[in-house]
Design a protein that fits this description.
The protein is mainly alpha-helical and 128 residues long. It contains 4 helices and no strands. Helices cover 78% and strands 0% of the residues. 5% of the residues are buried. It comes from Roseateles paludis. It is found in: Membrane. Essential subunit of the Sec protein translocation channel SecYEG. Clamps together the 2 halves of SecY. May contact the channel plug during translocation. Belongs to the SecE/SEC61-gamma family.
Length: 128
Amino acid sequence: MANPTSVETVTTSADKAKLAVAVLLLIGGLAAYYLLAKQGAYAQWGALIVLVLAAVGAFFTAEQGKALIAYGRESIRETKKVVWPTRKEATQMTGYVFAFVVVMALFLWMTDKTLEWVLYDVVLGWKR
């Protein structure tokens, strides 16, 4: 059995600074939203949107942001490799699931009624 290679992520001080700037911009956007309440909704939402977009931009320039983008691209690539069922196959499997649910519901109902009869009528002698 081969040993899996361990991957070490190295976070540089520049990446840490970019993440710190992103967090500060996000906090600044929230603060600006509440501090600009007297200026009106356009000023509030404008400041919030601009600062949140700047925070997102700062995050995506850091190594973690680039890794997130690579992960998203790889996920899309893997999704394209999936063999999706045809409409007929999907309908058949849905029918099987519904049939199984009905059978299980009947089984559980019969089990419940049988236990109810055994406990109340046979063991305890309560007649209804």
